[in-house]
Design goal:
323 residues; mainly alpha; Farnesyl Diphosphate Synthase; two-stranded antiparallel ribbon; 17 helices; 1% strand; globular; Octaprenyl diphosphate synthase; all-trans-octaprenyl-diphosphate synthase activity; metal-binding
């Protein structure tokens, strides 16, 4: 199985062109927009969502540059959500360095996030494709709903597995789905748009499940953020929900519910022990692998080429990463 670097190398020129679009579209007459925008975008990460747009388009033989612009739009929307997320969550670390709100303040982060959202819609108009506009406007709205759902779930000691999946479906997976769907739409393969949407959705769910498992077992330096961040914020993610529902005694269950309700890291060690004892990580990872299998099943109608192989590999990498 290929790694992320070799997969990205398949579309090296497209990836570089997308990065150029991102840098050009970040330009603003307002100095703070330039500073903060470049800071968060230069943090990089895997650029997995734009990578999916480019990979699907290449797999379907697209010729042109709309896939590069679409990939940049997806990255801007994602970056805007990160800026807003870190303010809401009061996070101070992401991708191994200080968050934008920790350096520039909450107000600046929210407003530059708004700039990135609005810039992404300006770029959508430039594509002059009503279906692209429909997909991305609906996706952006659903992400906002997901953020509100997560806020409602936060510090809820009785949050359910169903409510958790609704949050990650709207907040995370839907942008993966849009990225893959766009690759099909701009390639004029609307017959495959539904399958690509489902592929991205299942891939995004697997990615988030893996992320939530890593929050309790990964190394902080490798993870690029503080281990236990979800617990500190009182977020009832699947490992915590499963541990709460499968605790050996009422005292342990009460402890987990109290930690969800109040947040903080005072009991992180005890919570990690309960998560291990109940098999919560194994359960979460099993769910992630199920999502990967469902994602891969959507690729059966795609043309066989090196890009299709890379899409299969990306699905596997979602549950094999350590950061």
């Amino acid at each position: 199985m290929a790694d992320i670097k070799s997969i990205t190398a398949l579309i090296k020129d497209d990836f570089q062109a997308t990065n150029q679009v991102i840098l050009e579209q970040l330009q603003s007459d307002v100095v703070l927009v330039n500073q903060l925008g470049h800071y968060i975008v230069s943090a990089g990460g895997k650029r997995l969502r734009p990578l999916l747009v480019l990979m699907v388009a290449n797999c379907l033989g697209y010729k042109g540059n709309q896939h590069q612009i679409s990939a940049a739009i997806i990255e801007f929307i994602h970056t805007a959500t990160l800026l807003h997320d870190d303010v809401v969550d009061e996070s101070d670390r992401r991708r191994g360095r200080d968050t934008a709100n920790a350096l520039f303040g909450n107000a600046a982060s929210v407003l530059v996030g708004d700039f990135l959202y609005s810039r992404s819609f300006q770029m959508m108009v430039g594509l002059d494709n009503m279906q692209v506009m429909e997909i991305l406007s609906n996706t952006t709205n659903q992400i906002a709903e997901g953020e509100v759902l997560q806020l409602m779930n936060c510090n809820d000691p009785d949050a359910t597995e169903a409510s958790y999946f609704k949050v990650i479906n709207n907040k995370t997976a839907i942008l993966f789905a849009a990225a893959c769907q766009l690759g099909a739409v701009i390639s004029d393969r609307k017959d495959l748009a539904g399958a690509m949407h489902r592929f991205g959705l299942h891939l995004g769910l697997a990615f988030q499940l893996q992320d939530d498992a890593l929050d309790y077992v990964a190394d902080s330096e490798k993870l690029g953020k503080n281990v236990g961040d979800d617990l500190a914020e009182g977020k009832p993610t699947l490992p915590l929900i499963y541990a709460r529902d499968n605790c050996p005694d009422n005292a342990s269950r009460t402890l987990i519910k109290s930690c969800i309700e109040n947040g903080g890291l005072e009991h992180l060690t005890e919570i990690q022990k309960l998560i291990k004892e109940t098999g919560a990580i194994e359960y979460t990872l099993e769910k992630a692998h199920q999502e990967v299998a469902m994602a891969k099943s959507q690729l059966e109608q795609m043309p066989e080429n090196e890009y299709l192989t890379a899409l299969y590999d990306l699905a596997e990498l979602a549950v094999k990463r350590t950061s």
